[in-house]
Design brief:
With 233 residues, the protein is mainly alpha-helical. It has ten helices and no strands.
Length: 233
């Protein structure tokens, strides 16, 4: 990575942290510059607006996840294993990754434009990889579809919609999240993908259910703490 790219990557990482701490709706450009510790000239060298820096931060994060999944999927011998691995090993749904936390915060703060950027970032990062895996599966007669590209987009959107549903659910919970409800959403997505691909029953897992449950539990705990802190202030 060249020096300029490294500097930009550092700025984008700080931008994600800034969003988690403060959101951005009420932030002025000066507050953004101060928080990111950059000059106005440096800012406009990399970005065209305040929202652009956060949009690019989402794109960088999603691409990082996609690279993780892609590298692990390359080691798998079959298309089914590749498809399951590309998401599961990406880290998007991990309890230690910020994606679910960021999505939940964007919904709680009513930052719908950021939610849209996150969905677009996931599509751009994952759709081509998934499409290639589906085409390989068709070639090897593991899958059956005439529309690998369109189905790849559908799979990514289904997973994102599942995360959005779970995020709204976590925000509405006044007690410990129901793991059965979380599992039902995962199973629903898996069943749709299996049917669309005409894949063997139970062969599509996509993500670790246990890991996503842990991620949801972490988000719920963090959100409750934030709400309590804000009320005490």
């Amino acid at each position: 990575m060249v020096k300029g790219d490294k500097r930009k990557a550092q700025i984008l990482e700080k931008a994600r942290d800034l969003y988690m701490q403060k959101g951005i709706s009420d932030l002025s450009l000066k507050e953004v510059l101060d928080a990111l510790d950059i000059s106005k000239g440096c800012f406009y060298h990399y970005f065209v607006s305040k929202t652009d820096v956060f949009a690019q931060a989402m794109a960088q994060m999603a691409e990082g996840y996609a690279v993780n999944g892609r590298d692990e999927a390359e080691k798998c011998p079959t298309a089914i294993e590749k498809l399951n691995t590309v998401f599961d090993k990406s880290g998007v749904f991990s309890s230690c990754a910020p994606f679910v936390q960021l999505l939940t915060r964007s919904i709680r703060c009513d930052d719908m434009w950021l939610k849209a950027y996150m969905e677009d970032a996931m599509l751009r990062a994952f759709s081509d990889d998934i499409s290639r895996i589906l085409a390989l599966g068709v070639q090897d007669q593991e899958f059956y579809t005439a529309y690998p590209l369109e189905l790849a987009d559908m799979i990514v959107r289904l997973l994102f919609d599942m995360l959005e549903t779970l995020s709204r659910y976590l925000l509405s919970c006044d007690m410990e999240p129901n793991l059965g409800f979380i599992m039902s959403k995962i199973v629903f997505v898996r069943s749709i993908v299996e049917k669309q691909l005409e894949a063997p029953f139970g062969s599509i897992t996509l993500i670790s259910a246990a890991e996503l449950c842990r991620a949801c539990q972490k988000v719920w705990n963090d959100e409750i703490i934030k709400i309590v802190d804000s009320e005490e202030k």
